[in-house]
Each structure stands twice: as C-alpha cells, then as structure tokens.
Amino acid sequence: MENFFKTPKGILAGLLAILFIGTTPLALAFYNVEQNAFDTGLYIQALEDENIYQRLPELAVQALANAAQAPERNDLLSLFRNLSEEEWRVFIIGLLPPGELKIMAEDAVMQVLAYLNGESDKVVLSLARLKTHLQSPEGVSAIYGMLKAQPDCTVEQVTAMALGQQHMTLCNPPDTFLFVDLRPIIAAQIRSAVGLLPEQVSIISANADRVQELQNLKNVRLVMRLSPILPLLCLLAVAVLAVRSLKDWLNWWGYPLLVAGLISLSLTALSRPLAALMFKSLIVPVLPVSLSPYILDVFKDLVTSIVYHAVQPTFKIAGIIALIGLIMVGLTFLLRRDSAKYDSGRK
After folding, report:
1. What is the tens place of the pLDDT at every residue in 286-312?
2. For residue 14, is pLDDT > 50?
3. CA 48 to CA 39: how far, in whole Å?
4. How far apart are the two ends of the chain, measured CA to CA in Å?
C-alpha cells in the first residue's frame, strides 16, 4: 500500500480522494440551497422563527425616525421631524398592525420567488388591504395622531379646511373651529387622500432586459443542482485507479466518506454562527452606517435563519455519508485483524 502511493496512479488517486473530501461539503450545501432557497415556505418559516412580523413595526419606527431626522432631507418625510420615537411607534403600529404586515410580507415573498422561478415576469404588491385598513377608524386615528404631532395649523389653514377649500395639511388642527367640528371633515379628507393610493405597486416590472439575468440565474441553479456529480466522479475515479480488492475499496472509500461526512456535519451544525460571521464581515460593511443596531440585528437574524433552514437537509445526508464511511472503516479494521490472525496461524 505504501509503495502504491509512490506510483503515478497512487498519487492521482490520493489527490482525487482529497478533492472528494474538499468538494463534498460544498456540493451538498450548493445542492440543498438550490433545492430550498427558492421555496416560499423557507422564507415564511424564517420570518416566523425570528418573530419578524412583531419586530417589523419597531424596525419601521427606527428606520423612518432616523431618515426623517437627516439634515439633508427636504422631502415629505422631513415634515415628520417633530414626531418622537414613541409617536412614530404608535403611528406605525396603528397604521400597519402585525396581521396586515404578515399578509403583505408573505405576498411579497411569493411574488418575488415566482419571478425568480420564471413563473411570472413581474412582481406586484397589492395595496388593497392596506388601503382598506387606512380608511378604517383605526387607520384614520393613526394618521390623525400623526397630525397632532405637527405644528399648529394657522387660521388660514383651519378656515380652508372648515370650508372644504383645502386638502389635508400636515399641521395640528384643533378639534373645533368657530363651533364647527373639524374631526369628521379631517377624517373625510384622510379617507379621500388614501383613496388616491394605487391598488397595487410594481416592485419589479416586466422588462426584456432582465431576461438574460434570469437565464443567468437558471444557469447558476443548474450548476448548483449538478454540483454533487463532481465528488461522485472523484470517488469513481479513485475506485478505477486504486481499488483491486475488497480491502482496497473499503480503505479508499471509507476514509474519504467518513472525513467528508464529518466536515459536512460540522459546517451544517455551525451554519448559524458562520452565516452571522459572513453577515458581519461581508454585508454590514456595504450597508449605510446610519442603520441602527436594532435594524442590523433584525437583518442578521433573518439572514442566519434563512441560511440555517436552507442547509438543514444537508445534515441528514452528511450523517448518512459519515455513517457509511465509518462502517467501511470499521470493516477495514475487522478484515485487517482477521488477516493478521490468519497469517499468525499459518506461522
């Protein structure tokens, strides 16, 4: 056996065995990611596991509050600088309760994955439920509460609102003006403004230029799906080059299978911390520095959960590979012991 490693066939077989050990964990990860990463259920499971639906309002509060306070802002969002973080929280929760956010998030996930899977040529997010909620008493109350945090309306603005000469203005209106109850007028203006919102918005529109991008994605997925072929070819080539007996086969396949299986098991078990480390080192540096630690923490939890669920099937496959390798290595020792007893008996 030792002399065999010095021959060209032995060296090549050894290199192929090492290549099998190195490529098997990657091939298993690629294959399972391709099989699971484009499944809607994986993302919905990750959203639920990390309690994202309940954390989204706080995520929106911090993101919008920080954005509104930016000194260079000079748009509609800058008018909300007077809102405190707690007022943002009340506003967002009243505007988008977790139940509505869950429906919208799941719809968006299904639309995006349908697009990536080639089942649709565009991604459209329906705003129908959001509009219905905004026009409800709860939605009107949330918007009215936001107005209360604005500077007081001028007499001219209040007069125009009372006479129906001006649409809803971002200022703090009094409840009554000259014995006129402004609350139903303002509620009607809020409902009218909400009614102008579109029924749906296009996240990704149909575009012929994206056909090639989708084709490139299909090609990448095909390579990922076929990636297990490489380690299998390595294993078969090792058998052709080195296996001449049952003992050779157990040796040349048992140890690589055992080592490759154990490495795959270890990487799968460490998928969460490894994904968190990659998020910190690769994704965080390219994100805006203004993002709060809470926002980064939510994104990190979601990414690590998605990676964890995507590679979980690898654990079972890797366990089977390691078990087969262990059995073959065990049989090798049994054969070696029986052979040693037989040789001693002959002497």
Report:
1. 766 766 777 788 888 888 888 888 888
2. yes
3. 15
4. 23
The answer to whether 30 and 308 are in contact (CB under 8 A) is: no
Extract the tokens encoding 217.
């994605």
* Cα separation, 37 vs 268, whole angstroms: 15
81 neighbors 68 (Cβ within 8 angstroms): yes
**Sequence ranges of the domains in the chain:** 4-38+227-336, 44-209
- Side chain identity at 142, as an amino acid letter? A
Looking at residue 74, what is its pLDDT? 44
Can you give 94-131 as a three-state secondary structure string?
A: HHCCHHHHHHHHHHHHHHHHHHHCCCCCCEEEECHHHH
Dihedral of the CA atoms 328, 330, 332, 335 (nearest 10)?
-130
d(C-alpha 3, C-alpha 199), whole Å: 76
Query: Can you read off the two tokens belonging to residue 253?
Result: 């396949």
Average pLDDT, integer, range 240-254: 88
Average pLDDT, the chain: 78
Structure-block tokens of residue 308: 């964890």
C-alpha closest to that of 197 among 100, 93, 127 = 127
pLDDT for 53 equals: 73
The string of DSSP letters for 119-175 reads S-S-EEEE-HHHHHHHTSHHHHHHHHHHHHTSPBPPHHHHHHHHTT-S---SSB--S
**pTM attached to this predicted model:** 0.68
Rg of the chain over Cα atoms, rounded to whole angstroms, equals 31
